[in-house]
Request: fold
Amino acid sequence: MMMRTIVVVTTLVLGAGAGMAQQDAVKLAQDTMKANGKNMGAVLGPMFKGEKPYDQAAVDAALNQFVDTAKKLPTMFPDSVKDAKWEGDFSPSPKIWTDKAGYDAKVASFAKVVNEAKAKVKDLDTLKANFPGIGKECGACHETYRLKKG
Amino acid sequence: MLRRIFLALVVAAVIGGAIFWWLTIPATVAANSLPAYTPDPANGLTTFNAGGCSSCHAVPGQPDRLKLGGGLAIPSPFGTFHSPNISPDPTDGIGRWTEAEFVSAVLKGTAPSGAHYFPAFPYASYANARIEDIRDLFAYLKTLAPVAGKVRDHDVPFPFNVRRNVGIWKFLFADDRPFQPDPARSAQWNRGAYLVNGFGHCAECHSPRNFLGGIVAAQRFAGGPNPEGEGWVPNITQKRLADWSAKDIAFFLETGQTPEGDSAGGSMVRVIRNTSQLSAEDRAAMAEYIKSLPPLEGPPRPKKAAKS
Reply:
């Protein structure tokens, strides 16, 4: 009886732990994407459009965040979040798991572009040359691997 | 008595059949109705980009958007369509088509064989196009590389596979009047209205459809369920886009970036690949028109917390 109780309790605890890990993974993915969006829409975008003055420190922070994202992306959508609840407008497409090779290729392409941007962007002109390419990478992956729910 | 009822039924069936036949005759544009014209392939390229032709007709899974061998599978509630080859290949593409056949296809949705095209080909929007723009487009397509390979047939089950029935659909939902400029508006607004409603065919995805697949006119541009299946197409009237300036809309059409820093996803990515090739003036015109769309409530969106 004692043994059985231990097994049951352990299973429950582990199960709850897995649920927590799942929600943590969902939160990490959403927070990372939101931060990326903020960098595109509130930091780099306005400089690109000439609405805000060029600010190298802010540009570096944004590009570092993208480089960091590129490192997280290969493991950002573990099998455990397949059936997770995604609050908000978007959810990952099942294609992330059914077409892993295609997803990995998009991630590698994003990593290349943001690392190059980090090395090259030193002033407004180089920002203007690199900004559209970053946006294209976002879209290229969202085209296939993200679903819009509402 | 019975005989008389039978006769009446036969007569009714014949009349009904004749009306159906008459209503569903595919419309064409006769070659001799086209005035003499020297096409401008440069404007044809603009038309090509505004029309988003390559979104569906480029060979999928490869980067060249000018390789128009078709083959994209387009799912719908009525079956799966497979976009045809519109490269200038003489056997598998449109290489042997006459100009009038091409104009009939784009403007009237009628194939050179005389059959109706399915409205997955957005001719209900293209009907707004100027004939000169279509003739320029034909000249431009002729300059592209031929791509060999015939595309498979559509997977569309009965009764939707009866092409003659499409004539009824056209009668109900396709407006064959050309675009009418609004003289009270600016030239830029009218250019935008022409591009958005004509070649741009934005309403084809950004509007809800009824059970027969016709656009719900009262909710044009108000978004709805994705006709290709999963997900939702956003409302692009001021109901949803009030926070976007015309400049934001133009920037989105150029880069796919929203003012919030999000990027376009799904089929819109393919659309941006085309609109990014348009001139800044044309994008600004489309933006001005879209910004002017009065707020319209679309169909209810699914609950946000819905399980993925």
Remarks:
- The CA atoms of residues 223 and 234 of chain B lie 5 Å apart.
- Chain B has two domains: 37-178, 180-299.
